[in-house]
Amino acid sequence: MGAALASLSNVRRRAQKIGGFALVPFLALLIVHGFYDRLPLFWSSIAGFLCALIGNRGNTQNAGARLHEAYVEYAEYYFLFPLFLSITLLTKANFFDQIQMWLHWGINSMGKDTCLRAISGLHVSIGHS
Lowest mean pLDDT: which of 14-18, 85-89, 92-96? Predict the structure, then answer.
């Protein structure tokens, strides 16, 4: 068993390097999205996936398992799609603007406590990012 694990150490190190390589564009696009919110978050996950796919192109031993894992990962996004869609629709319908208005009214009329101080400076744009 020890010999089998030792033989996989090179494969594990290569996978870690590829993962680190794929993490760079993913994080870079997340940071860009933080400053420029018109860039969809979708591109950061696609950039990371494509870098990982390019990095693994020479390794055909477990290509099926990798593609299956990618399929399962994106299936989780499909599962959450209705949630994201409903939040987007509520934001576009200014639902969160009403909640913000009620929060400000409550904070101003009832006073501030420790929890409410964090949201007293809430901006309208926070619901539209």
Answer: 14-18
Secondary structure, 3-state, 45-75: HHHHHHHHHHHCCCCCCCHHHHHHHHHHHHH
**Distance from CA of residue 106 to its chain's centroid?**
32
Phi-psi region of 39 (alpha: psi -120 to 50; beta: other; left: phi over 0): beta
Helices (H), the chain: 2-7, 9-35, 42-55, 63-92, 95-110, 114-117
- Among 24, 125, 118, 40, smallest CA distance to 84 is for 40
Q: Identify the H or E element spanning 42.
A: helix 42-55
How much of the chain is helix, strand and coil, in % rounded to 5?
80, 0, 20
Whole-model pTM over 0.90: no
> Hunting for tokens 């964090």 — which residue is that?
118
Task: Tell me the per-residue pLDDT of 32-52, one tens digit each, with 9 for 90 and over.
Answer: 888 887 888 888 888 887 887
Q: Hey, what are 83's tokens?
A: 């949630």
